[in-house]
Structure formats: structure tokens, C-alpha cells
């Protein structure tokens, strides 16, 4: 016993050591970071507001605007009207462009007119005078710049993390930087250093109040936008992101200040760590790279969206925009500004900036301080020691409860910290809990509890070996005791077996049944079915026990179809051996059944009982009447939505008063040929006419169907019924059901 305790403690220590190496950075396990990202996403989604912040409005270059105004890029004269409307008519406070205007607008045709003025029409005074008169209206960049002049407008641009061979490192004009970085800070801080940029043309950037970049060099490895840098440096100058610059403009340009913690020295040099960015009275916590965790409010639409074309035509209530921050961006898929975020896989990039601005104004930016490494180290030790002490002392059930309790405490602590805007590591403590518990239970399973594995083998006579192996993984889940489950039952029977048996000697009959039942059983086992019993020429099987199967109806149907395919293959062998042709009928029903080991003290069998089982047997018996191979019930059909079925009838089977809809499987919806779909549509119309007692229409429809497919017995059945009901009307209370008096 003492040796086993030592083994268990050693297992806990091994897991602890592996995770501490990752925490201290000595070893890097990418999957741990991926798990941490997932736990971060879960916390964010669990606590998100799911409310709309109306202080920030997104003027959206959406699909409808592109359809009305024209494809992007639009003329700068159009953008000038939008800006003028926003400030003059709607009286917004600040406008930020999540767009870069890196090239001049030549869409007005000004260059062509200037060329004519210099060449062919240089001596045409009338042309020269007219051209000079209209020239200002064709200078779209100047018109746009005039609309920006003296207004609270922030232009967007982007930094380049690398420059390809032959690529220009500087395009356009950068806005005025926040500051020139101190040499020591620039060298020691981990703020991203850009090597190039793509800016706006000079006339536009000079006219705007400021500018902010919208690229994100800190996208996580899985491509998700969790963090965005508020600052980057270029040639030792510090620049703002679009979100920070827009917030600064909205707050009337308070100064931006870096809050840097200095401590001790490393190799004779002072240690610098960026803690926060101060924007006037607002303190924004950031990581050492100057990034913030984006405080997503909710799914796409957490801010009001207004189509750009409505701003252009002033088709918006001014109250919606007065004194607001406006971000001009796009949600149109074709303009490629969609991002993957923790709250949504496809999310407009412009709304990422809006979330950051909202978080800054509300002071709700979550922060992961540098000391969380120490917290994680201590937490791992506490959890490991607690589990090493508790697990060997407790039974498996109590151990599981204890593990859940420890996990709950860890999660509760991190959620309390989250509500106080602290991001504490969660993945490594939970991983430690899970791995330690698994190792302890695995050790106990193989060394201390071998007898528990024997339970699954009790079912070996009913199910295939591969399912027995699955059951061995969790033997406590299975029992021979009776229980009620929703399952699917299958009945298969050989048609005309009495006639077949009378024409064969006992030896041949035995060989035929073995040749038939063996491949049929193989098909059932392949589709995860449990053989209940063989009843002479019949097979009874079920799905959903002893191994639970959420797709029991689907597996049963595929087994039935596979049995019919196998039967076609066997016919050639039967003919070659001089045996008669064999046909089978199959009935399937899904419903609540009692399952368990039933019988007497002399003999027990693992079987199913109940009305749902009886109905499955009745359905098999109806296959010959309707001339089909397989009949399924309404409940089975509803469980397999990807399959197409032909409704055969609404029937009352022997022993049941309520009518039951029965169906024949036709095929997977994706595999149906056009002519089959057409026939099913025509049949549905005919059936509708029949049930509405429109005998003339039903007769014509079924007659045409029967003529196109005379081998289908079903159509003749309905034609016979039409003749009967025309002479013997069923009455207004008729429910359309047909009563079968035999099994």
C-alpha cells in the first residue's frame, strides 16, 4: 500500500514538473498556449455584455452601398460629401477611417482633360476657359482634403512588419507621431518595430487632424484577434493605433504617456517593462508589447451599423449620429476586412477598433500583468500537493467529486479576477488537475481494479468484438439490469420460407440458412448493431444498447440497406448451388423500449421489450403487402433527416388503435436522380388528392404513376382503394388510415 502511494505521488510530481517547465519558459508546449487561448475565449464569451454601445457608430461600406453607389473605390468627391454630411448635417464628434488612401484619385478624368489642354485643344480658347472653370470640381483629392480640413478626422494607415525584395518601404505620408522614443526605452521595450508603412497621400493626411494604423502584428498563432497593439514604433518614433488615435481625438487630444516600470538591472542595464498607456485621465493597461486584449462586447452588431449610402443621401435620423464617434469601414466580404475573433469566426475588422474604443472609454480593458507567471507557479504547486494527498485516500467516486471541487475553486478564482479586469492563467492548473486525475485513475484501473473490466465481456455473445473493446474503456456505464431507453429495433424475415423449406432436405435448408444469416449478421455488426436472437429464418436486432448510440436509427437503416445489397450478391451463389431465390422483408422502428437481461432462472437473454418492439415486427410483416423490401416508422424517418423516404400509407396495425405513418427509404437526398425526385413529387400530389377524397384526381394521378412504373405494387393498391371508396365513401371523419387485421 505504501508503495502504491509513492507511485501515485511520483505521478503527480511528474505532471507538475512538466507544466512548471512550460510556465518558467524553459520548455514550450504550444498546445498549452492553445488551451489557454481557448479558456480565455470561454471566459470572454461567458461574460460578454451582448449589448449595443450607441456612442460609437459604424458607417458601413456594405453590399447595399456598393450596389447603389458603385464598386469600391468610390470617387473622393463622394467621400467628401459623406464627411460633410457627417459633420455639418449630423454633427458627429469624430470620424475615423478604417481605410487607407495610398494613391491619388484619377477617376474624374482630370488628367485626360489636362492632356487635351496641352495638346490638341491648346489653341481652343473656349475649351481652355471652360476647362479652367470646371478644373476645381475635378480635383477629387483636393475636394476630399477640404472636407477633412479643421475637422476631428483620423485617417487610417498600416505598418509593414517586413519588406519584400523590390517593394517600397514607405508609401504616402505618416501622421504626426506621439513622440520620439528615448534611446534606452526604444532598445529595452518590446514594442513592435515596423520596417515600412503604407500611408495616405500627403494632401489627405495633412488635412486630417491625426492618423492611426489598423494592422495587427500580434495576431495569435490560430489567426484569432485577441490582442491588438495600441502603439508601434517606426525609426524610433512612437505612433498610435486607429482606436487609440480616434479615442484621443474624441477626448480633445489629451497627451499620450507610456507608463514604464523600471526594476533592478540585468547585465548592468536597467530593466524596463511597459505597464500601461495613459491617455489624459484614462489609464489603459497593456502588455509589454503595448497590446491590449480586445474587450469584445458581443457578436457582430455590438455597435450601430448605418449603410454609407444612407449617410450620402441623409436618409438617417440625426439623433442617431449627433456627437457620436463614427468609424467608416466595411463589412462587405469582397473588401476583405473580416477577421477571426473569440466571439465570432467572421467578424468585421472595423468593429474590432470600435470594441477597443468602447473598452477605453469604460475603463474595462482586461490585463495580464507580468506577476501572473509567479501566480501560475504557486497555483500549480498548491493544486499538485492537494491532489497528491487527496486522491490516494478517496474512492473513485469521491476522488472525482474532489477533482471537480478543486477545478471549481480554480475556475471561480480566475472568474473573480476576470471581473476585476485581471487575466489569470487557467489552462495549466486545469490541465494539471485533469492529467493527475487521469494518471491516478489509470493506475488504479490497471493495478487495483482489474475485476471491473470483466463486465463488458458479459455482452460478447451479443455484439461484435470491436464494441466490446469500447465498452471495456468504461465498464461502470454498462449493466445487465433492465432500463428504459429510446432505441431502434430491426426485424428481418424470409418471404415464403415455408414453401422454400418444403422443397429442400434438412441438410440443404441448414446450409442455406447459415449462408444467409452469416453475412446478414456481419452487416448488422458492421453497423454497430446488437443481435437479439435468430428465430428460424428471422433476425431480430437492436441499436442503442448495451453501448449507447446517439445515431442508432441511422445505423439501423444503413444496416437494413446493407442487408439488401448483400442479398443481391448472394442470389448468384444460391442459383449456382441449385437453391431457390430468397427474398427478405425488413421492418424498423424507433422508440422507448425496455432493455436488459430477461428470462428465468434457467435461461436468461439480453433483449428488448415494449410496444415499439412490437410495432417493428408488424412493419416487417407489411413489406410483402406493399411490395417493398424495407418499411420504417415515422419516428425512425424523423431521426434520419438527410435521407429521402416515400410515405407508403397511414395504417392501423394489429394491436394498435392509433394510425401509424409508414415509409420506404428511397436514398440519400444528395444522391437522388431527377427522375426519382419527379416521381416522388407526383406521388405526393396523388396521395394528397386521395386523402382529400378527390377520387377523380387521385385516380388519374395514380393511373399515370402506375403506367410509368407498373412493377410498383403501391400504385395499384391505391387505384383499387379509389374504386372502393368511390362506391363506398369513407365519410367526413375519415383520417385516411387503412386498418390491417393480420400480423
Q: Could you please describe the fold and organization of this structure?
A:
The chain is α/β, with parallel strands linked by helices. The chain has four domains: 2-47 and 368-446; 56-105 and 151-362, no CATH class; 479-671, Alpha-Beta Plaits; 673-743, no CATH class. Strands 19, 20, 21, 22, 23, 24, 25, 26 and 27 form a nine-stranded mixed β-sheet that branches. Strands 1, 2, 3, 4, 6, 7, 15 and 16 form an eight-stranded mixed β-sheet that branches. The protein has a three-stranded antiparallel β-sheet with strand order 5-10-9. Helix 5 (110-118) packs antiparallel against helix 6 (125-138). It starts with a helix and ends with a strand.
Instruction: Classify the secondary structure makeup into a structural class.
Output: alpha/beta
Give the % helix. Answer: 40-55%
- Separation of the first and last Cα atoms: 64 Å
User: What is the count of distinct domains?
Assistant: 4
Mean pLDDT: 87
Portion in strands: 15-25%
Write down the overall geometry: flat
Count the E strands. Answer: 27
How many helical elements? 24
Spans of at least 5 consecutive residues whose pLDDT stays below 50 are none
What value does the Rg take, in angstroms?
Answer: 38 Å
Provide tags for this entry.
single chain; 743 residues; alpha/beta; Alpha-Beta Plaits; 4 domains; 9-stranded mixed β-sheet; 8-stranded mixed β-sheet; 27 strands; 20% strand
